[in-house]
Every structure is written in C-alpha cells, then in structure tokens.
Amino acid sequence: ATGRVYAEPIVIDPGFTTRVACFKLAGEWDFSRRKELQAMLRPAESLDEVLLDFSRVTFIDASVIGTLLRLHRCMTEHSRLSTIRIIAASRHIARLFEICALQELFGLRSHTIETAAGERTTSPVICGSVFTTA
C-alpha cells in the first residue's frame, strides 16, 4: 500500500557545495514496492549524500538492497565522495546488511535523521526531498 508523501523546504547554504537529501521510510519494503522506491530515490542519484531513516521500516528484502546499491553506483558516477547513510535501522534489518557485508558501505547508525542533523557541525543538512511512506 502506498502511503503519504511530503516534501520539506529546501535549506541551502550558498557557501557550501555538498548536496544532501533525507528520506524517511516506514512499513514493509519488498519486491512489490521496488519501482516505488526507485522512483522515490531517483532524484538523489546526482547528490553527494543521502540519509535514509529506517526507524519505522519493519521489513526489507534483497530488492531494497539492490536498489540502494544501484543508487550508490549512480551517486559515485557523479561524485567520488558520495555517501548513503542508513540510520535507525532495526536490529533485524541491520543484521541483513551485516550478512551482506554492506553495513560499512551504508554507515548504519542507531539514531534518527534529526539526531544526525544535530551531529553535523561543519555542514548543514539539506532536506530537499523528505518522503514518508506508510
């Protein structure tokens, strides 16, 4: 089932060149929702950093991991320093990334986007596209 989608205002620091998007997902994400996830993440393909808050995600399958690997590849084609960080993933979801030896690639964290934004002392978080799906 598709949930609600909303966008927050863009915060831009003209003196800073890193472009960041924050996405907050919720519910179950499997192969049946792969195209929805790909469409949601497509605008982030040319960005420098993507934060994915998984605090409300209850299930993912391999199609989600494949979609995130594709996003990472697209991002690195645009910028060698591209980063995707998954934060606040459940223990079971974090374990799946660990089994696939991808926890370091996606910088798994145990806090939410709001906490991550507070930790960034040298650069602002630019939330041009924050999506919530339930």
Q: What are the SSEs and their pairings?
A:
Blueprint: E1 20-29, H1 34-41, E2 49-60, H2 62-78, E3 83-87, H3 91-99, H4 113-119, E4 132-133
Parallel strand pairs: 1-2, 1-4, 2-3
Helix pairs in contact: 1-2
Walk me through the structure.
This protein has 134 residues and is α/β, with parallel strands linked by helices. Helices cover 31% and strands 22% of the residues. It is built from four helices and four strands. It has a four-stranded parallel sheet, covered by helices on one side. Helix 1 packs parallel to helix 2. The N terminus and C terminus are likely disordered.
Features of this protein?
134 residues, alpha/beta, four-stranded parallel beta sheet, 4 helices, 4 strands, globular, disordered C terminus
Strand order of the largest sheet: 3-2-1-4
Could you describe the largest sheet, including whether it forms a barrel?
Answer: 4 strands, parallel
Q: If helices are DSSP runs of H or I spanning 4 or more residues, what is the number of helices? A: 4
How far apart the termini lie comes to 8 Å
SS-based class:
alpha/beta
Could you give the order of the helices and strands?
EHEHEHHE
